[in-house]
Amino acid sequence: MGSGPVGSGPADALTDVAGLRVGHARVAGEGALSGTTVVLAPEGGVIAAVDVRGGGPGTRETDALDPRNLVQRIEAVVLTGGSAYGLDAASGVMAWLEERGRGVRVGPDPSQVVPVVPAACLFDLGRGGDWRARPNASTGRAAVEDAAGTEPGAPVAEGCVGAGTGAVAGRLKGGVGTASVRLGSGITVGALVVVNAAGSVVDPRTGVLYGEYGAAEPPVVPAPEIHRAALRRLAEAREAGAARPLNTTLAVVGTDADLTRAQAQKLAGTAHDGLARAVRPVHLLTDGDTVFALATGARPLDPHNPIALNDLLAAGADCLARAIVKAVRAAQGTPDRQGTAGHPSYSDLYGTPATSA
User: Fold this and answer.
1) φ and ψ of 93, to 5 deg
2) Mean pLDDT of the region 128-138
3) Which pLDDT tens digit goes with each residue over 199-238?
4) What is the largest CA-CA distance in the chain?
5) Which residue, among 115, 128, 116, 2, has the nearest Cα to 60 in the 3D structure?
6) Alpha helix (H) ranges present in the chain?
7) pTM to 2 decimals?
8) Choosing a second label site near 313 at 20 to 30 A (CA), which of 81, 125, 185, 294?
9) Are 48 and 264 a contacting pair, CB within 8 Å?
10) How many whole angstroms separate alpha carbon 204 and alpha carbon 210?
11) Distances (CA, A) of 61 to 69, 132, 202
12) Are 49 and 281 in contact (CB under 8 A)?
């Protein structure tokens, strides 16, 4: 059997990578419009890397993932709303891990650990929610507890959940999406993304989602009259309120392959190609686009194939592009709130694939 894609995993989600779990939490309160998503590694941690390409990133502990530095494995990754304020969510995840003795051991007592929890934030402030209703340590703890409470391989909630609660994609509602692929080698690659982009996810000529071009299935092309109506509604939304061009798309690409830290960093970097296919433009000064890569090490690469990594690199980019499509399709529109123009969802404008021509 070849080593290329043979189909998606059972859940078509990052959790198809055995050992990885995903949890979401929303900031409590009627006026809140933000949240946090946690990817929890199996106990003992995973090899991890990161590639940051946006011009306005908000991150925590990403320097620890540099292959030249000390930390070898991490226990969790935090994706959060709330801009830089929301990075406090990682403190709740750290506390949860410390209570279980999970982290970098720094003393003779097994409880003397320092959990290294890389985190990245997106901008979702002032989009109709209470400006001060931002993720904090309690939100992070709720998200990691949600992840820990899931069964192995569990489906992952998509759309306006967790870090995607207040996300937008251009003038459309953004959110969380996930996808996976199984390779002929038996290796699984999965992606989870929070789409919160300054750029657009929709081809203005046709209404097709950019991420559907070049996919295994042909793109779903909306009827021309539906597309014209969508463009009118988007123009009205644009005139109703000035959008803050402060965004950031965050993603985690995971695999059960046995990768070195340098190989994981290459996987994170190449996955940005999937982001560039599905969002145009990307990596602007007002984006903080960040991709993490996680490798559980359960399956070795083919030692007789010096470029075996190529299949994973291609799969990571493909998974991320498809996860973006799924996120946008799963999102639900938000109405006008507190004087801020709402954001329609893609399905509000174009319907589901079954109702598009």
Assistant:
1) -70, -40
2) 88
3) 999 999 999 999 999 888 888 899 999 999 999 888 887 7
4) 69
5) 116
6) 89-99, 137-148, 224-240, 261-278, 309-330, 346-350
7) 0.94
8) 81
9) yes
10) 10
11) 12, 24, 33
12) no
Location of structure tokens 């190529």:
310
Per the CB < 8 A criterion, the answer to whether 277 and 211 are in contact is yes
Q: What are phi and psi of 218, to 5 degrees?
A: -65, 150
147: number of Cβ within 10 Å: 25
Distance CA 330, CA 111 (A): 41
Query: In whole angstroms, what is the distance from residue 40 CA to residue 70 CA?
Result: 21
Q: Which two tokens stand for residue 314?
A: 């291609």
- 3-state DSSP assignment of residue 2: coil
Q: How far apart are CA 215 and CA 198, in angstroms?
A: 23
| Residue 264 DSSP symbol | H
